[in-house]
């Protein structure tokens, strides 16, 4: 009974929208307004697109209660049909209620650029018809889709991202998250109890499995290029991913419905009232219906809002006239489709949904939430049929080899095989029909298969009917066995091929649902010859195989007439052949849908009658809210009429066929509606109307109880292997939903467990950048003990999924190994050692004895050596790709040093104790080279660890000795420059020193030694030096110009814009300015929080921060490649002593800058300058904005220079 | 000769943030320039430190120069100081030494800019760590009065007074810019006057010569 009423519920739910009352209930006001606006839009064909959605007052409502947040997903709460005018100029998407849309952008006028997940069609849609969609349960999946979309759209497909299934994880985890509720396992009580849920879950999983398969195909296609167009596959994957969402949404709907049901609510009385009044207002055109014999006045009196729909009245009215004669008012309702089938379809669906959402206790009346459409996936069916066929043939072949066969058993076996073969062929035909694109290959193998089966049947018949002379009894002779065997194996082979092709086709076109009845469906072979030998007396019809329509005709009414959908046939007496369930006319191959005619697809009564018959007996009990709309302008029908009878009543009061009919119409119309939506010009109505079953579920509101027929099919069809596969994947414990990704598919956040999982993924070698980032930075977000725990945990739970356990465990071991070998830092990591040792000894040894032993040995070694065992390759991030050899072949001759004998002598003398030579005594090039060698040595010794966590700024840089050494050298170099200039009393000498340093700086620049360049230019522009105007006057303009351009290349303005650009294109050897990296690292550290909140509200590690850190470090490491220059020990020594000298000065005196300034004042006293500036009458301190920042002084210097002669 | 400023609706200033390492000045900068809509902060792009604010109805573009991370490159300090139109001197209220260092920084600024009136704001950061306070508020105010520079106690963590301090500095820079402009125009006018006078004199002299 439950099933029956559920079934009834289903019918009524579909019909319900058409009985909607407009003038009652507060909750409906919004809907009716909308109806007006949408009907306006429709009838007036508004020219300005925004007017339609924005014209409604609701716009404000919708937006006011939502925060100004960009919603990635919208769900239509109301149908929207673009008027022809609108569609002409722009691509405007029609919406069904419940449609979920991926939003790309929202224009300020309220139109959003979005992709309809149902169809993958992209276009404009009015946001005021939609609500933001982001339910908690779906959040993870929706986010995963966003990532997936971004990834598939933005990344080049040749990218190695797709080399693994890694990018699929998000989606899988999203589905898992959704199912996590109570439905993760097939055995969970909720799934067991709730059939609709079970189905929806299954279809979701099967969709997921096909996505996974497609992803595998993508991998294959990448390995063997040219086989398949990768872009096609990518597109297909996107569509599949969309479908998963659609299914997910549907699943959630059912779940919600179920949850509501479990809350005991209203009394039956209220329910009844609700039943009568609550349905929300549909748009005028479709909502209108005639419930009584005199529709127009009735409607007019009831609903003023619908008057604007009168323009459609004439047509509808005529329909009414015809209709009322044909049947009662309920039947007439069919003809509301005359207005516009597509529209109707949408409306009806929509309201179904709406109804369900607003008056859910209505459903509770029935005691059941019902599933609207069973899921009969063709792929499942195909597999089942194939299995059955193979098992029949298999047992037949097996028996043949036993050599003795009785005739009846042979006949039976053949018959069984042929029957199941016929069924299989039928499925194949459906697939064929579905993919109207000429699937020649499939066609071909289908024919072959058919021939083979026929061949088998004929052979068997020959043998059976023409017994050889030597044959006694009912035994088949061995010779015949051979023939049969050949025929049978031929069948197996041909079938295998055919099924494989069919699967391929299904994959291409997308799995779809198809309502199979449980009975003798299928292509029938002429088995009459066999019949006499078998007990089974079933006679089969001829073996026509031309069209499915014909084959089905043997079961039910001829559906072929249905193909003439466009014919304005009017209701005939509905034939009430309450019959076996029939598949819902997927074979309605009509071209009608290709042309979006203004009044297309008037579903004929005939059609409906056929469909009617197709519905199962169960429906006798079904209640009918049969009041269908007839006239667009009439909206209301009185609840007094039996039309409004609630479920229980209608079952008794109304004749069932009304309900059947109405249901069938909705079905049909929705099918055609979908065709309209589809952009796939190739798809025929067949595919559309059958895919409908898979696709529109969200628009169909609560899916509750499946019909018996569906049940039977579902029960009989075993879960497919793929679904099982995906299921098992889902059942794996995973933290993948705790990961966050950016548009490039890189991990930006995640819990430690999720990151560790990513690190030890079994599907691919983990991303190198990710691994090195992890090793480098993990101490910033967890303790070594945490990491060890997480890894061990990973090792443990990998065991729950046997097929991944081995690779995952190996990877876990490898992570430990890598840590101990190359990334161990004893001072911090020591705490984790006992845990690692224990793990190695016990768990790891138990699972992987060799590995366990080795890890234990490593741990022992590490604890002894207290440091890393294998030379660090962290730098592999940068270095691996830029090996020294690449830029500087080892055999490149070293440039010969520019140093004379006398210079060397000078150095020798200095060593011997005589006076020190000066900078001026050496060639600028050689000085630049030796400086560079010196600095590069320091730079190369910087380790990545020193650069983490702003260590160099903390505790006097104790944790970053090399960074400190490098920066202090740079500072000392600056001081040396200033010191060597200020050393000279004579202006000429000072000018000479300045010139010399400019030349050295220039040589540094040519060597790409930006660190020295920065140090020297800083010194030369330092106030102490720059104020030496008299000295600068003696420096040639050429040198000053040179300095200016050198300065420009290390300009600190605009965040080192110039310097960055230079470094970006620079190949090693090159010595970048360390300070820039230090600033970047500091700001990454302070500018990014340590944690972030994932979409599911979880606080996770902000891995993005660490990735950025690692990126900067790897960029720095890119340059840690020594120059190939000859080191001159004596010169180096002298330089060291010079640096040491200024450093000592710095330490002794207060600060070098101040000392230099004092010296500078001494050399060129202030008074003189002030005097000059007074003479100049030029502003002393030109604001930098006018003077061009740091070069201001040069200019002012020049101007004073130029001005002075004039005065 | 009209000043080019009168045609610039949007002014641009360089603000230099100075202070000892570890006072959290980079946090202040990051807080100030961080656009909340951006999920993660990338300091390696050109306008990482550029931000636009509105001060008293005037749009101002600020380029923040922060020495964070490069405090050890003492030689660069001069470079920074030369580029700044305004300075934010940051210390941590929990560190006495960081407060004492401000004096040197200011001396350097004054020396390098040769300007006593350069816009400066003193910021005592980490105001949220009241229990660790090592610098009395009175001391800070005394310094503020001595320098004639406003003092703010801010917290980058709680985002208290961050914007306020920057806005104050901006206001100072704008005011100074305006008065400078006036002064400049005055000078230019005077110079033009002088030039004209000179020419007149020269012409007179020439005339004389001709007569002679």
The N- to C-terminal Cα distance of chain B equals 37 Å
Side by side, the strands of the main sheet of chain B go 2-3-1-4-5-6
Radius of gyration of chain A from CA coordinates: 41 Å
End-to-end CA span of chain A: 113 Å
Strand order of the largest sheet of chain A: 4-3-2-1-5
**Proportion of residues in helical segments of chain A:** 55-70%
- Number of DSSP helical runs of chain B: 5
Named CATH architecture of chain B: 3-Layer(aba) Sandwich
The description of the largest β-sheet of chain A is: 5 strands, antiparallel
The two chains with the largest interface, and their residue counts, are:
A-B, 58 and 57 residues
User: Rough shape of chain A?
Assistant: elongated
**Total number of distinct structural domains of chain B:** 1
How much is the average pLDDT of chain A? 66
**What's the assembly state of these chains?**
heterodimer
What proportion strand of chain A? Answer: under 5%
How many DSSP E strands of chain B? Answer: 6
Structural class category of chain A = mainly alpha
Family (chain B): Belongs to the small GTPase superfamily. Ras family.
EC number (chain B): 3.6.5.2
Catalytic activity (chain B): GTP + H2O = GDP + phosphate + H(+)
Membrane topology (chain B): Lipid-anchor
Question: Any descriptors?
Answer:
heterodimer; A: 1207 residues; mainly alpha; five-stranded antiparallel β-sheet; two-stranded antiparallel sheet; 54 helices; disordered C terminus; B: 212 residues; alpha/beta; 5 helices; 6 strands; elongated; Ras GEF (chain A); RASGEF_cat_dom (chain A)
């Amino acid at each position: 009974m439950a099933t029956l009423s559920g079934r009834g519920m289903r019918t009524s739910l579909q019909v319900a929208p058409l009985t909607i009352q407009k003038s009652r209930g507060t909750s409906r006001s919004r809907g009716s307004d909308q109806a007006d606006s949408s009907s306006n839009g429709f009838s007036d064909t508004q020219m300005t697109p925004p007017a339609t959605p924005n014209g409604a007052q609701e716009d404000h409502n919708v937006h006011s209660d939502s925060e100004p947040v960009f919603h990635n997903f919208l769900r239509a709460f109301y149908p929207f049909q673009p008027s022809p005018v609108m569609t002409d100029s722009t691509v405007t998407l029609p919406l069904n209620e419940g449609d979920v849309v991926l939003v790309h952008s929202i224009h300020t006028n309220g139109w959003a650029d979005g992709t309809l997940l149902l169809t993958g069609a992209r276009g404009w849609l009015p946001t005021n018809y939609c609500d933001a969609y982001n339910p908690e349960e779906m959040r993870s999946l929706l986010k995963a889709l966003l990532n997936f979309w971004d990834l598939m759209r933005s990344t080049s497909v040749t990218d190695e991202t797709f080399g693994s299934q890694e990018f699929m994880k998000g989606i899988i985890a999203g589905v898992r998250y959704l199912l996590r509720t109570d439905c993760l396992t097939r055995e969970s009580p909720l799934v067991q109890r709730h059939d609709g849920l079970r189905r929806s879950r299954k279809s979701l999983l099967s969709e997921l499995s096909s996505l996974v398969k497609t992803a595998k195909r993508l991998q294959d296609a990448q390995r063997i290029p040219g086989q398949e167009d990768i872009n096609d596959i990518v597109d297909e994957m996107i569509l599949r991913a969309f479908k998963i969402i659609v299914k997910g949404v549907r699943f959630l709907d059912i779940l919600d419905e179920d949850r509501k049901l479990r809350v005991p609510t209203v009394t039956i009385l209220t329910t009844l009232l609700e039943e009568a009044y609550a349905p929300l207002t549909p748009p005028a055109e479709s909502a209108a219906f005639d419930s009584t014999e005199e529709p127009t006045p009735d409607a007019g009196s009831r609903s003023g809002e619908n008057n604007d729909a009168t323009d459609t009245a004439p047509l509808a009215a005529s329909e009414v006239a015809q209709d009322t004669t044909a049947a009662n008012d309920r039947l007439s309702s069919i003809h509301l489709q005359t207005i516009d089938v597509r529209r109707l379809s949408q409306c009806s669906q929509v309201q179904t949904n709406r109804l369900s959402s607003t008056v859910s206790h209505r459903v509770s009346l029935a005691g059941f939430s019902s599933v609207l459409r069973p899921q009969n996936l063709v792929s499942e069916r195909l597999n089942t049929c194939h299995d059955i066929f193979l098992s029949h043939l298999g047992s037949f072949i097996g028996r043949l080899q036993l050599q003795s066969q009785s005739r009846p058993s042979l006949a039976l076996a053949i018959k069984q095989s042929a029957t199941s073969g016929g069924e299989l062929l039928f499925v194949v035909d459906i697939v064929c029909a579905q993919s109207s694109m000429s699937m020649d290959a499939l066609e071909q193998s289908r024919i072959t298969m058919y021939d083979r089966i026929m061949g088998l049947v004929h052979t068997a018949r020959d043998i059976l009917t023409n017994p050889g002379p030597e044959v006694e009894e009912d035994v088949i002779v061995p010779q015949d066995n051979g023939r049969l065997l050949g025929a049978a194996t031929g069948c197996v082979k041909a079938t295998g091929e055919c099924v494989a092709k069919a699967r391929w086709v299904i994959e291409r076109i997308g799995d779809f649902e198809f309502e199979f009845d449980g009975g003798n469906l299928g292509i029938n072979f002429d088995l009459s010859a066999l019949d006499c030998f078998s007990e089974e007396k079933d006679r089969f019809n001829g073996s026509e195989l031309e069209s499915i329509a014909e084959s089905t005709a043997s079961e039910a009414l001829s559906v072929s007439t249905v193909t003439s959908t466009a014919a304005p046939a009017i209701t005939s007496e509905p034939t009430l052949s309450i019959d076996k369930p029939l598949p819902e006319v997927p074979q309605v191959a009509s071209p009608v849908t290709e042309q979006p005619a203004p009044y297309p697809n008037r579903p004929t009564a005939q059609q409906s009658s056929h469909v009617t018959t197709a519905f199962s007996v169960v429906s006798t009990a079904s209640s009918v809210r049969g009041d269908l709309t007839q006239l667009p302008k009439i909206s209301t029908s009185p609840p007094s009429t039996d039309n409004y009878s609630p479920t229980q009543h209608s079952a008794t009061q109304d004749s069932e066929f009304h309900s059947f009919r109405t249901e069938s119409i909705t079905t049909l119309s929705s099918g055609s509606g979908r065709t309209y939506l589809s952009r796939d010009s190739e798809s025929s109505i067949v595919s559309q109307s059958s895919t409908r079953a898979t696709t529109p579920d969200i628009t169909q509101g609560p899916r509750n109880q499946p019909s018996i027929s569906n049940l039977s099919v579902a029960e009989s069809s075993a879960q497919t292997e793929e679904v099982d596969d995906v299921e098992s994947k889902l059942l794996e414990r995973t933290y993948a939903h705790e990961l966050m990704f950016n548009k490039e598919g890189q991990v930006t956040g995640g819990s430690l467990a999720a990151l560790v999982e990513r690190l030890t993924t079994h599907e691919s070698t983990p991303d190198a950048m990710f691994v090195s980032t992890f090793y480098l930075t993990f101490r910033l977000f967890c303790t070594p003990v945490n990491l060890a725990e997480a890894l061990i945990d990973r090792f443990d739970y990998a065991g729950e999924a046997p097929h991944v356990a081995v690779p995952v465990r190996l990877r876990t071991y490898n992570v430990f190994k890598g840590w101990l070998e190359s990334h161990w830092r004893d001072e911090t990591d020591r705490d984790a050692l006992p845990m690692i040792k224990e793990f190695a000894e016990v768990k790891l040894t138990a699972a992987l004895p060799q590995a366990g032993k080795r890890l234990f040995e490593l741990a022992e070694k590490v604890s002894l050596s207290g440091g890393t065992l294998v030379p660090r390759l962290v730098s592999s991030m940068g270095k691996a790709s830029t090996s020294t050899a690449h830029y500087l072949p080892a055999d490149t001759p070293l440039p010969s040093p520019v140093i004379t004998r006398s210079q060397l002598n000078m150095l020798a003398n200095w060593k011997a104790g005589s006076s020190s030579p000066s900078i001026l005594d050496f060639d600028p090039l050689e000085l630049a080279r030796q400086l560079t060698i010196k600095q590069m040595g320091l730079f190369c010794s910087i380790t990545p660890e020193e650069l983490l966590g702003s260590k160099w700024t903390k505790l006097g840089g104790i944790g970053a000795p090399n960074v400190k050494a490098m920066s202090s050298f740079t500072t000392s170099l600056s001081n040396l420059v200033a010191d060597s200039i200020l050393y000279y009393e004579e202006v000429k000498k000072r000018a000479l020193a300045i010139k010399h340093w400019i030349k050295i700086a220039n040589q540094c620049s040519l060597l790409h030694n930006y660190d020295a360049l920065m140090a020297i230019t800083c010194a030369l522009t330092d106030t102490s030096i720059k104020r030496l105007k008299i000295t600068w006057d003696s420096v040639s303009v050429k040198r000053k110009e040179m300095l200016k351009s050198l300065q420009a290349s290390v300009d600190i303005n605009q965040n080192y814009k110039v310097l960055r650009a230079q470094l970006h294109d620079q190949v090693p050897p090159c010595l970048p300015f360390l300070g820039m990296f230090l600033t970047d690292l500091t700001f990454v550290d302070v500018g990014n929080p340590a944690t972030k909140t994932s979409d599911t509200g979880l606080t996770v590690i902000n891995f993005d921060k660490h990735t950025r850190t690692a990126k900067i470090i790897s960029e720095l490491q890119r340059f840690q490649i020594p120059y190939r220059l000859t080191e001159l020990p004596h010169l180096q020594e002298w330089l060291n002593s010079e640096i040491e000298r200024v450093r000592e000065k710095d330490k002794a005196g207060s600060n070098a800058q101040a000392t230099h300034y004092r010296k500078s004042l001494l050399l060129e006293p202030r008074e003189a300058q002030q005097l000059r500036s007074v003479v100049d009458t030029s502003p002393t301190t030109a604001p930098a904005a006018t003077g061009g920042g740091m070069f201001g002084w040069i200019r002012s210097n020049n101007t004073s220079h130029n001005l002075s002669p004039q005065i | 000769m009209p000043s080019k400023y009168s045609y610039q609706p949007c002014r641009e200033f360089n603000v230099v943030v100075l202070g000892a390492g570890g006072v959290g000045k980079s946090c202040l900068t990051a807080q100030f320039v961080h656009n909340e809509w951006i999920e993660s902060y990338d300091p390696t792009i050109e306008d990482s430190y550029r931000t636009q604010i509105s001060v008293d109805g005037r749009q101002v573009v600020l380029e923040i120069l922060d020495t964070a991370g490069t405090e050890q490159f003492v030689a660069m300090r001069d470079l920074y100081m030369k580029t700044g139109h305004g300075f934010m001197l940051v210390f941590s209220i929990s560190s006495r030494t960081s407060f004492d260092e401000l004096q040197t920084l200011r001396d350097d600024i004054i020396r390098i800019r040769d300007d006593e009136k350069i816009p400066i704001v003193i910021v005592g950061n980490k105001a949220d760590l009241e229990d660790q306070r090592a610098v009395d508020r009175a001391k800070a105010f005394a310094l503020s009065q001595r320098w004639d520079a406003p003092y703010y106690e801010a917290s980058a963590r709680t985002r208290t007074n961050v914007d306020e301090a920057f806005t104050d500095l901006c206001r100072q820079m704008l005011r100074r810019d305006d008065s400078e402009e006036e002064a400049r125009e005055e000078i230019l006018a005077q110079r033009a006057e002088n030039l004209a006078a000179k020419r007149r004199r020269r012409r007179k002299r020439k005339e004389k010569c001709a007569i002679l």
